[in-house]
């Protein structure tokens, strides 16, 4: 008798404790006068995974119309803050920049560059800050800073001019042999050679099977390096790797091996007095003793910055140029307007150059509209809070997961009026001779604040120069009857469906 009563009592108190714990877990502690951010009801254990589906940026943009700029969902048992609206995002990432500069500690991040990545690692302290400064300096020196040894304005300009001409020849060969081409596969090789030259100088392989196989398969990376990767929220999935996770692991291994070999060669004939590329600059920093403002950076954390720079500089710029070509064949009248502008401002006797940028506002407006309309980087990389904070009156505890919906900012009805129209003209001032700066600053694709992209200027200049040189000489099209599908495929960077039917014809014969 006494025993069963004791058992009952034990059972009852266990159930009570469990219920109490569940309620506590669902309603976290919030200081007086503040509220938790609102959000829809979610399933126990799963949270909102099923709601997010295949296109989380679209679902979360819709939810923001109902719940506002600061809302909360759950993935598995992890609460996730979702920010929308440019003003709210600016408040968080810029005004309260230090609160929101963290990155979450994710399983998938440990697979990238053996866990040494600066971009994809939870560190946001002094070592991260020193690495970021170092990467930014080395990158600028060998891309956009003026190059004293050359007649062109900078390394970037030299490399892009060379590779754009090579690309034009390759496209014409393909046209002669096959009659059409897949723009992605052609563009990725050119962009790889540009970022390869800036990172490694002469040591970047001209053409090797290994290199081609890596650069053509970055989708194995971007399909998994997403804010919503299930393996980061349901750790048990680590032991049941999906095909996508296996592709991701294999890609990361091949990528590190490939770059490691080039860096090793570089190290052997490294000459401190003649630094000619980003790797050289980083190796020099290793030798110097890596004390940047008192924070020691371990050697492998310096060398692995190359992986961050090469990876980011390859995939994003390729995706942007490739999307541009798809929009051009879909909108031939916009292509004609860009070409008319090129003919008027530059003519046909000389090649376009970086310094022509301000005189070519229509091309500039076209690039801005590609960023906005495609929003091919739909979310910032995942962020996390570094301390307890508040935003718009809502309480957000430390180490809280944060998604920032760039796609929503770029398609906000209140800002753009007709967000789904592809209309470069929207960025021109009334007389059409310049870019409306107020409006162009409302496009969000490079992130904001302390983690903002370090390659923004380089990327904008590179995309501009490639397109200007290509469009001066070639007209892009698809044969009548070919349907061009521009539905983005969700990922860290969103790609367009591949199309093998793109054609290019010379606009005039070159003497
Ligand atoms: C159109 C091209 C590009 C786009 C749309 C883009 C976009 C982004 C975005 C959204 C972030 C995350 C920012 C955040 O969390 O707020 C980022 C970070 C970063 N980007 Fe880019 N990027 C581009 C090109 C480049 C290039 C060319 C490089 C270097 C060669 C680069 C290097 C980086 C690095 C190193 C970070 C990490 C910064 C950190 O964690 O502190 N990106 N980029
Ligand atoms: C770190 O040092 C550099 C130059 O040595 C300086 O420009 C920078 O302001 C310093 N940063 C901090 C946080 O002290
Ligand atoms: C720029 O765009 C904004 C918003 O559409 C508009 O209010 C402003 O008048 C424009 N400025 C110029 C110089 O055209």
UniProtKB/TrEMBL annotation:
Its cofactor is heme. Pathway: Lipid metabolism; Cofactor metabolism; retinol metabolism. One of its GO terms (molecular function) is iron ion binding. This is Cytochrome P450 1A. Cytochromes P450 are a group of heme-thiolate monooxygenases. They oxidize a variety of structurally unrelated compounds, including steroids, fatty acids, and xenobiotics. One of its GO terms (cellular component) is endoplasmic reticulum membrane. GO terms for biological process: hormone biosynthetic process; progesterone metabolic process; retinol metabolic process. It is found in: Endoplasmic reticulum membrane; Microsome membrane. Transmembrane segments: none annotated. It is a peripheral membrane protein. Keywords: Endoplasmic reticulum, Heme, Iron, Lipid metabolism, Lyase, Membrane, Metal-binding, Microsome, Monooxygenase, Oxidoreductase. Pfam families: p450. Heme binds at residue 453. InterPro entries: Cyt_P450, Cyt_P450_CS, Cyt_P450_E_grp-I, Cyt_P450_E_grp-I_CYP1, Cyt_P450_sf. Coiled coil: none annotated. Its main location: endoplasmic reticulum.
